[in-house]
Amino acid sequence: xxxxxxxxxxxxxxxxxxxxxxxxxxxxxxxxxxxxxxxxxxxxxxxxxxxxxxxxxxxxxxxxxxxxxxxxxxxxxxxxxxxxxxxxxxxxxxxxxxxxxxxxxxxxxxxxxxxxxxxxxxxxxxxxxxxxxxxxxxxxxxxxxxxxxxxxxxxxxxxxxxxxxxxxxxxxxxxxxxxxxxxxxxxxxxxxxxxxxxxxxxxxxxxxxxxxxxxxxxxxxxxxxxxxxxxxxxxxxxxxxxxxxxxxxxxxxxxxxxxxxxxxxxxxxxxxxxxxxxxxxxxxxxxxxxxxxxxxxxxxxxxxxxxxxxxxx
Amino acid sequence: xxxxxxxxxxxxxxxxxxxxxxxxxxxxxxxxxxxxxxxxxxxxxxxxxxxxxxxxxxxxxxxxxxxxxxxxxxxxxxxxxxxxxxxxxxxxxxxxxxxxxxxxxxxxxxxxxxxxxxxxxxxxxxxxxxxxxxxxxxxxxxxxxxxxxxxxxxxxxxxxxxxxxxxxxxxxxxxxxxxxxxxxxxxxxxxxxxxxxxxxxxxxxxxxxxxxxxxxxxxxxxxxxxxxxxxxxxxxxxxxxxxxxxxxxxxxxxxxxxxxxxxxxxxxxxxxxxxxxxxxxxxxxxxxxxxx
Lengths: 313, 292
Known about the structure:
A: eight-stranded parallel barrel; 10 helices; B: 292 residues; mainly alpha; 2 domains; three-stranded antiparallel β-sheet
């Protein structure tokens, strides 16, 4: 494939300097009281939803500031809209950069998706047709974002429930070209691979093997829900056995990569989350937890719940 | 293979998500906009049709945003009950699609929407109160959300390190630098709702549904100050002149200027109001409304 834009040397060297952070959890407002009252153990680092702390000068920012003193922080966003046909939102990027100046995160990530078009925002992580047109478009925008932020961008594979007729690339092919052309990095959401593979009928192990493995700097774990004939990325269940198996494979291929457990609805107490996170360590030691994929027997299963951190004081 | 451009695909899918109606209506409207047929764009499998696949996104769009509104307006959801709240929330989302990347702005116009869509032509006072209150509660909760994320006084050295007594003394000697706390908001309501808010909060704390016999407020002007002290939310009832005075301070007037502006608006003597304001000033500082 032809090169769409000149590579950015600063990005390549920056990715090489990223060291594994260990085992982390998403910072959620439900855990603020616990985190501020007890010594925090069993977790190496925290990931924040960037949008929850932009323009937020309340208690959430205070908790974040306290944690920043003791833990590495990663900023994970849901609003960059990197795949949209609309122009990049530089007001958003300006605020993201300002937050990064405050947080000094280990890295900044978002999703390979689009969230809105022509001034409207769906607040969902919507899939892109995987075409040469999309690839060229995303390469151009990732380069713009990296130039603006002056750091490499880390992009996550989304969970998807539909495929476009005109897609001509697989997702691993898309990511491989994207990484090669922009020197961005990849956040491999192992649960998303499992969800998309189930929904679209591809082999998740082959998918992982075909990714640009050297560029994977982080992995996400989460629990999906089976709803009818579809797996939904609900982030509200324990990690099931098939996802642990894929995680084991991915870690064996990538070497030690920072691991993050996501849990965004029906959030358990902090110690329970740490216990679930600790299962990742047993997986790397060769033991796979026997947890089934859970069914949803009710209507209204929500994919990828976006977390609005409500201040509750 | 279809030749739809990225822009065309995105316009089509976004239309399907945000327009009013069931999925068939949405697909028809999207076709009318873009001339795109579902099956030319989305793959079907043996297990799940293209229509079912798109419906996951269309249904998820509404459910997700209703959840976000329920989170921000938890008192209102408790007061209205989940079914009624969801009905209004869905109508709001379809009528006023989100224009911001931030979910913080999603509920910005919800109180106004509730006020504009409440049933008209009600004669009975009790019924009128019932239909008026949702917009009032929503305005209270929206303002509270703003207070909780605004810049506060927590990092203000004067406001945090000097004792309240020291601050009061300083203010009485020199009140030229008195300012509104940046997290201060003042609102005026048609009902004094604080007692109702307490009843709703008690129900939420006990995981109970709202009782049939709620003590509802009687319509009368209500002036509230919402603020934050050491990250704790605080709400205070105000006299009319206090509401006006704080409002002018929020707009940037000095304390002395705000007294004059308030006196002018109320058509009272500036000297008389100055006396009341100076008496109230230490208390206003203690309440996290003003600081020096």
